[in-house]
Predict the structure.
Amino acid sequence: MNTQDAKRVLETALICASQPLTLREMRSLFADELGADSVRSLLDELSRDWEGKGVELVAIASGWRFQSRPELREYLDRLHPEKPPRYSRAVLETLAIIAYRQPVTRGDIEDIRGVVVASQIVKQLEDRGWIEAIGHRETPGRPALYATTKAFLDDLGLASLEQLPALDVGSAPPAFEALQGQLLVDADEVPPAAVAEAPAEAAAAQAPVEPVAETPEAEPAQAPADLPAPSLSLFGDDGTPALPNPDPTDPPPQPQH
């Protein structure tokens, strides 16, 4: 098979696929007669062929796919007008903290936000497929460590965590607002969490971790009396991100490729 025919097969498969295709899946189109480097070369050619058109070929966490260009989204949305999804500020801010500081426990998130993270908030994000538990921290109660998923990156149109919007300081909006603008355009509508948030009591202490297991999670320990006043912002008064340094003993987030 010559290069032009191989490129046509690859293009057709990508257009007809309902999910992103991995390199392994694309190699199977040619009975593994083409190597990974050859397939990547064909993908580069296809990307150039579609330059200037309304559709582009992109690499995301789960593989390669064709998608409409962002500047045309406002026109395409008119075909299927829907109410925008409704996520509470608490849900979005929790998601942003996990995305930028993973792996984290609920206690870590509570330390940053200054309020208790309700179980329904975590469940919303898990049900949407944006976060998952990847282990437990070895402290009393063994709280779960959360990280984002490939589905989270796919919905953002990103290939890796390094492509997340930068955490600019100063006049930049909080991270959760930057994520909201990109992430929720095509998301299914989910009602906001109907829970009241109370002042956080404490983050779980830091220690080595083990692989995830089916163990109930304990409530955060009682906070000391001189705990600083809680803040609902991801940024401090000086405009710098109010995020703690991750525990070096925590496991890294699962590979997003």
